[in-house]
Amino acid sequence: MDICIIGAGYVGLTTAAVLADIGHTVYCTDVNEQKINKLQQGIIPIYEPGLTEMITKNQDEGKLFFDTDSERHMADCPFIMIAVGTPSARDGSADMVYVKSVIAALSQTIHSPKIIIMKSTVPPGTADWMEAELQQLGVDKGLFEIVSNPEFLREGTAIEDTVHPDRIVIGAKQNEAAMNVQELYHTLQTQFLITNRLEAELIKYASNAFLATKISFINEIARICDAYHADIMEVSRGIGMDQRIGARFLHAGLGYGGSCFPKDVNALNDAAQAKGIRLNLVQAVKKINRSQVDIYLNKITHSLGKRSDKPRIAVWGATFKENTDDIRYSQAIALMKKLVRKGYGVYAYDPLVSSELSSVVWCSNPYEAVEQADLLVIATAWSAFIEADWPKVKALMKRPVIVDGRNCLDKSALEMYGFDYIGVGRP
Ligand SMILES: NC(=O)c1ccc[n+]([C@@H]2O[C@H](COP(=O)([O-])OP(=O)(O)OC[C@H]3O[C@@H](n4cnc5c(N)ncnc54)[C@H](O)[C@@H]3O)[C@@H](O)[C@H]2O)c1
User: Fold this and answer.
1) Are 153 and 251 part of one and the same domain?
2) 330 pLDDT band (50/70/90 cuts)?
3) Into how many domains does the chain fold?
4) Closest ligand 1 atom to the C-alpha of 121?
5) Which residues contact 135 (CB under 8 A, 6 or more apart)?
C-alpha cells in the first residue's frame, strides 16, 4: 500500500519506519524543511533506540521517502495518516491548530478515494468534526473515510512498542474502512479492537489518564511510607503482585512528564468540562504530580540546612524519562528551575541535553557535574547513572548526599559506599 504520513515527529517517524518495514511504500512528510533535509540525508532528528537502523534500511530498500510536499503525497496515496502535534493550549484544551492546517490541505487534494487515519491524540468528537469540516470545504463525502487509530507507543521504546503493541485500536464508521486499516498492520501479532471513532478517541485519553493516575497514586502512598518509615519499593512490589492491579507504573519518584501525560490529562479534563462534568480524580492526579517536585525540593533544602555559602547541586538527567531526548514537561527541568530560584548553583548533566536552561551550568560528563557538589540529584533513570562509579563520585563530592528522584539506585549499596541516600518512601 502507498501511505502518506503527515508529521515526522516521534509518532510519525516510528510509524513510517515500521509500516515501511512491514512492506508498504511510505511517504513521510513534514512542514519543517530542516527536519526533512536531515532525514533525506539519513540523519534522524530525534533519539529513539533502533529507529535510525530501521529508517536507513527501508530508505535503502526504496520503501521509505521523506518530503516537504505533503499535498502531492496526500493526492497520490490512498492512505493518509495524520501524526501532527496536538499540544496543550493555554486553557488546557488540545490545541488543534496543526490538525486544522492538515484539514485545509486535505480539502485541496482529495480527488480520489482516501482513508484518512488519525494517529494524533485528539479530543472525543474530532473525527466527526473533521468529516463535517471536509464536506463544508467542498470535499465529496463519498471520497473519504476518517478512521481513528490512536497511538500508544512510549518514547524510549517506540519501535518495540509499535512492532509488538498490546493492542491496536481502530475506530471507524464503516467496517470496510476498519478492515482496510487493520490490513496495513497484517504482519503484527497483536489483538485488534474495532470500535467506533468516539470510543477510540476516548480509549487513548482514558489510557493515559489511568497511567498518570497509577503514578500519582503510588507517589501519594510514598508520602505515607515516608511518614511511617516504610519502604515504598516493597509496598509497590506487593501491590503489583496482584494481577488485578499489575506491577507497571507503580514506581514512586519525581512524577510523570513528557509530551503526552500532562497534556492528555488536561485535554480529557477539558473535554469533560465542555459537557459540564467535573473529573475529581483527574484533578487530584494533576495536583499530586505538580506537588511531587516540591516534595523533593523540601528534602533537598532540609538536607542542606541553613548555609551562608551558595550550595552547589549536581543534577543528573534532564529528559522526562530515560532513553529519549524529549524534555517536554520534564519534571527534571521543573526541579532544576526551582533549585535555581532557591539560589542554589545547579550543575547538570544529561547524555542527550546540554543547553536547556541558561541559569544552569551544563557539564560534559556526570563526574564533572559532581565536582565539589553538596548534593547529587538523580532526576532521570538513565542506565549510565545507575551504573556510575560511586567511589569516584564520592571522592569528587564535597558532601556525599544523593537524592534519588527516580528511586532507581541500590540504597544499601550506596550507604555501604558511605553516601547519605534520600529517596521518596525509602526509610
Ligand atoms: N510522543 C509520544 O510518545 C506519543 C505517543 C502516543 C501518541 N502521541 C500523539 O501523537 C501526536 C504526535 O506526537 P509527536 O510526539 O510525534 O509530535 P512531534 O511534535 O514530535 O511531531 C509532530 C510533527 O508534525 C509536524 N507538523 C505540524 N504541522 C504539520 C503539517 N501541517 N504538515 C506536516 N507536518 C506538520 C511538526 O513539524 C512536527 O515535526 C500527538 O497528538 C501526540 O499526543 C505521541
Assistant:
1) no
2) very high
3) 2
4) 41
5) 141
The reply to whether 142 and 224 lie within a common domain is no
The string of pLDDT tens digits covering residues 292-312 is 999 999 999 999 998 888 999
Residue 7: CB within 6 Å of ligand 1?
A: yes
Q: Are residues 208 and 186 in the same domain?
A: no
Strands 361-362 and 25-29: unpaired
Both 185 and 51 in one domain: the answer is yes
What span, in angstroms and rounded, lies between the C-alpha atoms of 255 and 245?
19
Any ligand 1 atom below 6 A from CB of 153: yes
Atom of ligand 1 nearest to the CA of 46: 20
User: Mean pLDDT throughout 262-291?
Assistant: 97
Q: Count other C-beta atoms under 10 Å from residue 4's C-beta.
A: 28
Write the pLDDT tens digit of every residue in 18-32. Answer: 999 999 999 999 999
Is 225 annotated as catalytic?
Answer: no
Domain edge (last residue) among 194, 227, 250: 194
Contacts (Cβ under 8 Å, ≥6 apart) of 412: none
Residue 102 CA to residue 108 CA, distance in Å, equals 10
Which residues constitute the domain of residue 271?
Answer: 196-427
Of all residues in the chain, what percent carry a pLDDT higher than 90? 98
Place of cell 556525599: 400
The alpha carbon of 4 and the centre of ligand 1 are apart by a number of angstroms equal to 14
In 214-368, the DSSP E strands lie at 312-316, 345-349, 361-362
Q: Which are the contacts of 184, defined by CB distance < 8 A and separation ≥ 6?
A: 1, 3, 19, 22, 24, 79
Ligand 1 pocket mutation pick from 30, 84, 102, 154 by most atoms within 8 angstroms of CB: 84
pLDDT of residue 69: 96
Question: Which residue from 282, 280, 257, 146 is spatially nearest to 205, judged by alpha carbons?
Answer: 282
CB 311 within 8 A of CB 341: no
Q: How far is the centre of ligand 1, averaged over its atoms, from the C-alpha of 11 (Å)?
A: 6
Mark whether 255 and 163 lie in a shared domain.
Answer: no
Q: What is the pLDDT of residue 356?
A: 87
CATH of the domain at 351: 3.40.50.720
pLDDT in tens, 91-119: 999 999 999 999 999 999 999 999 999 99
